[in-house]
Amino acid sequence: MEKKNRLILALDVTDREHALRIANEVSDYVDSIKVGYPLVLGEGLGIVKELVEIAPVIADFKVADIPNTDRLICEHVFNAGAAGIITHGFTGRDSLDSCVKVANDFGTDVYVVTEMSHPGGVEFFRPVAEDIAKMAVEAGASGVVAPATRPERVKDIRKIIGEELSIISPGVGAQGGSAADVIRAGADWVIVGRSIYNSDSPAEVAKKICDEMNC
Ligand code: XMP
């Protein structure tokens, strides 16, 4: 992903017209659009084909299955035009390898969840987050997902993954995280959803977040 705006839009609206309107309004300020179950279950995977005309798409399906099923999911997502996918790591190295292999075949990116951004994200993830980050490096993933709600954890995870892998970081705005703080802690991109798409002026909010990050 080209690092220009450092902002990824989390497009968790559930209908096509709304999604395309928001995506078009903020397109000057985002490097990528993240879509997940809310939009794809609402509109089908075809929405990805429309959104890639506006910006590169990351599919947030938090893939977490056996290697063969992961492979099938990744193939569908990349055939639909997504430039990247978010996977879990707790399913183990063979499952992650399967995703990375498909991504390498398509020339796309895999981002692995380390510790999640919501309060419950510490319950089970905290003790394994650093091992998952190490595995992401060893498996040749493009990057990891780490919480903007805990910049100190982003710092810890950056130390583990070095400079080669990217950190994409959700939790800014509605979940309380600060874009500037998490970029300072070592994130490459922030992921922002509700603060932008629930606003009366999505482009103004997106611009403000970019300005906070000096991009
Ligand atoms: P909001 O509305 O809170 O949206 O700005 C955040 C977006 O990011 C997703 N999310 C996560 N994805 N690991 C992930 O892979 C996380 O820790 C995490 N926390 C939030 C969320 O589903 C929404 O799309």
Automatic annotation (TrEMBL):
GO cellular component terms, alphabetically, are:
cytosol
Q: In which pathway does it act?
A: Pyrimidine metabolism; UMP biosynthesis via de novo pathway; UMP from orotate: step 2/2
The molecular function terms in GO held by this entry are: orotidine-5'-phosphate decarboxylase activity
What catalytic activity does the UniProt entry give for this protein?
orotidine 5'-phosphate + H(+) = UMP + CO2
Query: What Pfam family does this protein match (any one)?
Result: OMPdecase
Q: Which residues form the active site?
A: 60, 62, 65
Q: What is its EC number?
A: 4.1.1.23
Which EC class is this protein assigned? lyase
Q: What keywords would UniProt list here? A: Decarboxylase, Lyase, Pyrimidine biosynthesis
Q: Which GO terms describe its biological process?
A: 'de novo' pyrimidine nucleobase biosynthetic process; 'de novo' UMP biosynthetic process
Q: Which residues form the Orotidine 5'-phosphate decarboxylase domain?
A: 6-209
Sites where the protein binds substrate: 12, 34, 60-69, 117, 170-180, 193-194
Q: Which residues form the signal peptide?
A: none
The role this protein plays is: Catalyzes the decarboxylation of orotidine 5'-monophosphate (OMP) to uridine 5'-monophosphate (UMP).
Q: Would you identify the family this protein belongs to, as annotated?
A: Belongs to the OMP decarboxylase family. Type 1 subfamily.
Oligomer status and interactors: Homodimer.
The protein in question is named Orotidine 5'-phosphate decarboxylase
What is the originating organism of this protein? Methanococcoides seepicolus
In the UniProt record, what gene is named as encoding this protein? pyrF
